[in-house]
Design brief:
Length: 503
């Protein structure tokens, strides 16, 4: 090649189509008649936003282990062991959790033992060979999806990538002919699914079609996740692929708590539980946290003598997950009859009643609101403080671009008893707030701090602060507030808040 042609080619290759500086100028020049703030990246996808709004939903661990008493079956269990004493009733499961205020549920339809609760074409290890008609004739994912639609709830399925029954596990054809096909079969039960749950567990050893051996895989590529995502999203576009699927993250513990500081961003290649619990302020990926926890006292699956957690413990979990910018998936295992036991049903109803009474009258709605600054309105959009209390998730209060600190003060003519503060950022444009505090005054002059000992750093999709600083005994006598003041000390970009409630 002649040198001049070589250098010409090099110049073309070395010149980026649009430099960063040019891109910024272009963005600023875009017409913006509504004066909308620019996104503060990364931002959630539409399906991640919808998923976040589900907030609190149930896990139903039910299957072969319910009958063997194991937590992790080996994969060699005879199909006839699965023999529900009554016809399993997913509508009963979902009705019970709806009474607790949950907005949906995920049914485990294949655990690590590989037994499938639907008549799959991929393996004979499924309900068609169950021990009785109750088992053989109950297609769990089908009934679960039907019940969710009837009850106006969201639904999805847990399908274990690890399969201790399959002779092919560890080879390519397990992924192509078994796992991906099973996921596709499940997607066919409804294009309105909100989440598929892919557990990371892989204990290695198992029956594996009689090999009784140990198989190790590298989950970072073995399950062909990009292909899985594409195939499922073609069928169910709003279905978030959880865990191994890479669209939402495990919160790093199974005890029902997220970090007080909790960013929705995280680099998924960082694998420490400490980072999963807090996320990362400066990460490149929107990777929000979900906390999986048990409502009962022993297993994920129901066992003889299974008890249910105390009401206040459940409420604490709620505050430490939903109240800390994570979603909560709370496990409520059906028993051998294929129903939730009556103690579970009763506790769930009590929990719903407790939440309804503690979060009853929203005092923010009756307050006068004063803010230190309000963003300049646009032609068809304003950013005023009334947006904080209008119940519309698409409106928000904002400051001007250059302002990253602000105060919002709620005042009443008479002192009010306050116990909880709930705040929500408008996360469609990114999670921003990184340092804030809350205070109150009862005499109108001296301000006292609230939520002692709690890190008031992040907010995110939802933050609920117990104002006495205790998540385990949060109710108490409350505080007599004539005014309550929120001070935002620092934010990654101008703060955008869609909702504030005070109870
Ligand atoms: C874990 C699994 O190994 C447990 O059996 C359970 O399904 C839990 C929700 O996830 O990693």
């Amino acid at each position: 090649m002649r040198p001049s042609r070589f250098f010409a080619l090099l110049t073309i290759v070395a010149t980026p189509l649009v430099s960063h500086a040019q891109l910024e100028i272009k963005q600023q020049q875009l017409p913006n008649p509504d004066n909308q703030p620019l996104p503060c990246h990364p931002v959630p996808s539409e399906r991640q936003l919808l998923w976040n709004e589900t907030e609190f939903y149930a896990f139903f661990h039910y299957g072969m282990n319910t009958f063997t008493g194991l937590e992790w079956g080996n994969g060699n269990e005879d199909e006839t062991i699965y023999a529900p004493t009554q016809k399993p009733d997913p509508e009963q499961w979902l009705s019970a959790v709806k009474a607790a205020g949950m907005k949906g549920g995920i049914a485990v339809v294949k655990h690590h033992d590989g037994f499938c609760l639907w008549p799959t074409a991929t393996t004979t290890h499924n309900i068609t060979l169950a021990g009785n008609d109750n088992g053989r004739e109950t297609n769990i994912p089908q009934l679960f999806a039907d019940a969710a639609r009837k009850l106006d709830m969201k639904y999805g399925f847990y399908i274990s990538p690890w399969d201790r029954n399959s002779a092919y596990y560890g080879e390519d054809n397990y992924v192509v002919d078994v796992f991906l096909k099973q996921c596709e079969e499940l997607a066919q039960y409804g294009d309105d699914q909100f989440e598929m749950w892919f557990d990371g567990a892989n204990g290695g050893s198992g029956y594996y079609g009689g090999k009784n051996t140990t198989v190790t895989i590298d989950a970072s590529y073995y399950y062909d996740i990009p292909n899985l995502r594409d195939r499922i999203h073609k069928i169910a576009p709003n279905c978030v692929m959880w865990g191994v699927g890479g669209e939402a993250r495990w919160i790093g513990n199974e005890a029902g708590w997220a970090g007080e500081t909790n960013w929705a961003m995280m680099d998924p290649t960082v694998e420490t539980n400490a980072v999963r619990q807090t996320g990362q302020e400066n990460s490149w990926l929107w990777h929000p946290g979900e906390s999986d926890a048990k409502a009962t006292t022993s297993g994920w699956f129901w066992h003889n003598g299974e008890g249910i957690l105390e009401l206040e413990r459940l409420f604490q979990m709620y505050l430490e997950t939903v109240g800390r910018n994570a979603t909560l998936i709370l496990n409520c295992p059906p028993d051998k009859s294929g129903h939730l036991p009556s103690v579970t049903v009763k506790r769930l109803k009590q929990f719903g009643d407790l939440c309804n009474s503690r979060f009853a009258a929203d005092l923010a709605k009756t307050a006068t609101i004063e803010v230190s600054e309000t963003r300049q309105p646009g032609a068809n959009r304003n950013y005023s403080a009334t947006n904080l209390v209008d119940g519309d998730k698409e409106t928000y209060w904002a400051t001007n671009d250059a302002t990253t600190s602000a105060t919002i003060t709620f005042s009443w003519t008479e002192p009010q008893t306050v116990r909880y503060l709930l705040m929500q950022e408008y996360i469609r444009l990114g999670q921003r707030i990184k340092d804030w505090k809350v205070e109150y005054t009862s005499d109108g002059t001296s301000w006292l701090p609230l939520a002692p000992g709690i890190q008031t750093t992040t907010v995110g999709y939802k933050r609920i602060l117990p104002l006495n600083g205790s998540t385990s005994a949060s109710y108490g006598d409350g505080y007599q507030a004539r005014s309550l003041r929120i001070t935002i000390n620092d934010s990654r970009a101008c703060p955008l808040i869609s909702n504030i409630s005070i109870f």
